[in-house]
Please model this.
Amino acid sequence: MFLTADLLKGLNKKAGLSLEGLWRFCISLQAKNPKVRNFFIRTAVTAFLVPVTFLIIWAGDWWLTALLTVCAVLGGWELANLVTRKKQKPIQYICSIWSGALVVSVHLYLEDYDFMFTVFPVLASIPCIINPFTFLGEWAIKSNLARKLSHIFIGITKYSVVPLIIGGLLSFGLLLNDLQGGRDWIYSIIILVAATDVASYIFGSLFGKRKLAPKISPSKTWEGGVAGLTFAIIASIALYYLFDLHANLGKSIGFGVVIYFSALFGDLLESSLKRIVGVKDSGSLIPGHGGILDRMDSILISLFVGYFFVLWTIV
Model:
């Protein structure tokens, strides 16, 4: 400890390094480079959200349900906004509310309110019934029957699927939590997704040359992808010793690999949707990150795949 202090003092004298100087240097970088400023904001928000999220998951039960319900409501709103392309707020409200209702229904089912597992999915299909009526106003204007019918069926398909995607996939967080060691599996998914995302970004930025999916996500590279997979394996080994996952090392590594590809698929899926719509972010709710869907895209698919991996191979 004393050696470290002496070493730092020596560096300060020779190189003029100091904590104050480092802070001023960071501030100057933020002022000159918007990307650096965004990085600092992103890091600060992450440093706040991660421990809060982990505490809520640790609390479990209704706390976890509340977290997933809020995410479902906000995510349902953003996804409905993306797929409608027009700010049709009645549809957004419906998709948002019923996305959250699906999560609550699964919680109540796990609490032995069996009838809720039937009631809420039925209610979640209400967008299927309501959406065709949003197109009835066009009937008086357009005379082509085929176009009228196509509008109705497109409305049914794209709007009613929003609650199923957001609320349905987030509900697997509750189902996973209900399994043996469920809380640790959820922690593992979050850590794996974060570790692989950071590794892919850093190594892709430094060494990336070959584009992984240039038409969907130009910033992703094969080099970054390999780094992400490598870190997924390393992280899964560390998680095996850190948590009581009730699995051997081989299955823990397998879990890490599966989560990596699930997260990558979810990320590319949302990127393709945003590219089709022509937007950079799904929203602006989280400073430095964009919308909540921009943070949940990888988690959504990973919860779904992770649940069945644990259910079929470990429990």
